């Protein structure tokens, strides 16, 4: 089997330049061809598996190499902290979101009073969306504005790239969360935003996260990547 850092290099090149530009994956790492190819094809389950595996390899102290170290440092750098601009929950499916100044976040459960909260420790305990993307979606739709409460996410966050947190831990105030993946738009966006609303939201749906340590979310609190 080739050195494991070759696996990382394969994944990095495949993710950034495409599988066709990457060398053959190391023997015995069958996940690599399936997982990274899945990223290129947009398969969500494969993408999650590949990214988790790459992240674990990059952070392993036994792995050296300039590419590994540099990429790990780049992935850990954020220009500034984020900020919670808005909080919303809905008590029932298809119910309108209710804006709140604060809400209790329960570890392994979700937000108190929210429709998605459950004891199953699911991946969608909290949903977050990028404040800066609302203007982009509005321009795509030819609208003057798109409101946060129409996009059916719990937290509106500004100042930090949420997509970079989709598979890593972060804190909002004292609450510890872990990104669990992208939050893709649903067909409801066509109803809320009008014709083309679903496509306008693709790539702008934000992320989902699990709550590892609970507390109270408050509007205005800082988001810090870990």
Write the layout of secondary structure elements.
Blueprint: H1 4-17, H2 30-41, H3 44-58, H4 66-76, E1 82-89, E2 98-100, E3 102-106, E4 110-111, E5 126-130, H5 132-141, E6 155-158, E7 169-172, E8 175-182, H6 188-193, H7 197-201, E9 207-213, E10 215-218, E11 222-225
Features:
alpha+beta, 24% strand, 226 residues, 3-stranded antiparallel beta sheet, 32% helix, 7 helices, 7-stranded mixed beta barrel
Detailed description of the structure:
The chain has 226 residues and is α+β, with helices and mostly antiparallel strands. Helix content is 32%, strand content 24%. The chain has 7 helices and 11 strands. The protein has helices at residues 4-17, 30-41, 44-58, 66-76, 132-141, 188-193, 197-201, and strands at 82-89, 98-100, 102-106, 110-111, 126-130, 155-158, 169-172, 175-182, 207-213, 215-218, 222-225. The strands form 2 sheets. The chain has a 7-stranded mixed barrel with strand order 1-6-5-9-8-7-11. A 3-stranded antiparallel beta sheet has the order 4-3-10, with no helix packed on it. Helix 5 links the parallel strand 5 (126-130) and strand 6 (155-158). The protein is globular. It starts with a helix and ends with a strand.
> Strand portion, in percent?
15-25%
Largest beta sheet: what is the strand line-up?
1-6-5-9-8-7-11
**Structural class computed from helices and strand pairing:** alpha+beta
- Please tell me how large the radius of gyration is: 19 Å
End-to-end separation in angstroms reads 33 Å
Shape: globular
Question: What order do the SSEs take from the amino end to the carboxyl end, as H and E?
Answer: HHHHEEEEEHEEEHHEEE
**Percent of residues in helices:** 25-40%
- Count the helices. How many? 7
């Amino acid at each position: 089997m080739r050195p494991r850092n070759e696996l990382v290099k394969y994944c990095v090149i495949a993710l950034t330049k495409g599988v066709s530009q990457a060398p053959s994956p190391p023997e015995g790492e069958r996940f690599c061809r399936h997982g990274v190819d899945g990223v290129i094809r947009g398969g969500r389950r494969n993408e999650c598996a590949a990214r988790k595996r790459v992240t674990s390899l990059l952070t392993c102290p036994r792995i050296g190499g300039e590419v590994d170290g540099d990429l790990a440092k780049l992935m850990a750098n954020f220009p500034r902290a984020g900020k919670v601009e808005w909080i919303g929950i809905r008590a029932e499916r298809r119910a309108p979101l209710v804006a709140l100044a604060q809400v209790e976040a329960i570890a392994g459960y979700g937000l108190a009073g929210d429709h998605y909260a459950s004891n199953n420790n699911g991946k969608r305990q909290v949903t977050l969306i990028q404040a800066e993307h609302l203007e982009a979606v509005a321009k795509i739709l030819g609208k003057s504005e798109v409101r946060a409460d129409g996009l059916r996410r719990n937290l509106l966050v500004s100042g930090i790239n949420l997509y970079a947190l989709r598979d890593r831990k972060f804190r909002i105030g004292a609450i510890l969360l872990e990104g669990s993946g992208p939050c893709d738009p649903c067909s409801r966006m066509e109803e809320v935003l009008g014709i083309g609303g679903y496509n306008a939201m693709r790539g702008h749906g934000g992320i989902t996260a699990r709550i590892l340590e609970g507390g109270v979310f408050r509007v205005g609190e800082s988001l810090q990547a870990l």
